[in-house]
Design goal:
With 212 residues, this protein is α/β, with parallel strands linked by helices. Helix content is 53%, strand content 15%. The protein has helices at residues 12-23, 36-45, 63-74, 87-95, 108-119, 127-134, 145-150, 153-163, 168-175, 179-193, 198-207; strands at 2-7, 27-33, 51-55, 78-82, 98-103, 124-125. It has a 6-stranded parallel β-sheet with strand order 2-1-3-4-5-6, sandwiched between helices. It has 2 domains: 2-134, Response regulator (Rossmann fold, 3-Layer(aba) Sandwich); 151-207, Winged helix-like DNA-binding domain superfamily/Winged helix DNA-binding domain (Arc Repressor Mutant, subunit A, Orthogonal Bundle).
Length: 212
Amino acid sequence: MIRTVLLENSHLKSANIFKKLQDRHDIIICNYSNNPDETLSYLATESKYDLIISSVDFRGVENIKLISKLNKVDKKPTLILTDHLHVSELREYYRSGASGFLSFNVNDEAIGSCLKLVRNGQVFLDQELLVEILNSNNEIEVSHPLTMHLFEEREMLVLKLISQGETNCQIAEQLFLSTRTVEGIRNMLIMKTGVKNTASLVSFAFRNRILK
């Protein structure tokens, strides 16, 4: 069970996220507010939650500083909800403590994957936001920590071999890994990219220039 604190600027898209969270049996909303000060007060007195979900479209509020404040209260993982995300904003939010990035159009499967990864100390970037960034004129530095968290070196090696049609057993032999480890990496890649199967994973990787 994942216990969440939800801070969102009330509008239709956020309401949709709220409903998706409510409908899941593996997620509990411990506290809900559309006022940053109320959420900060709650966090200052409560610690029985796993992560914070916050939209970043509050007017009259420096949203990057808000994420930093939310993250510093109890050092719990923080993920953000947004319509658009530029590379510079991605870096600033990451440096401010955000480790999950979701679009308002996120599907149910990606919500579950994101919350589990972020709770466990990993970084998640929603597929829709990733595509937007990859298609922008700006480039993400390969050495940037966020990129390294999203696609680790071993994951990239496995992904490349998957794209070449290698089986789990063949990949395990080439990388000196167990078959079970390779299978786990394959499932992690599918989870991180929000796709449904291996074929979609390979297509996604080439379409978004993760593989060439």
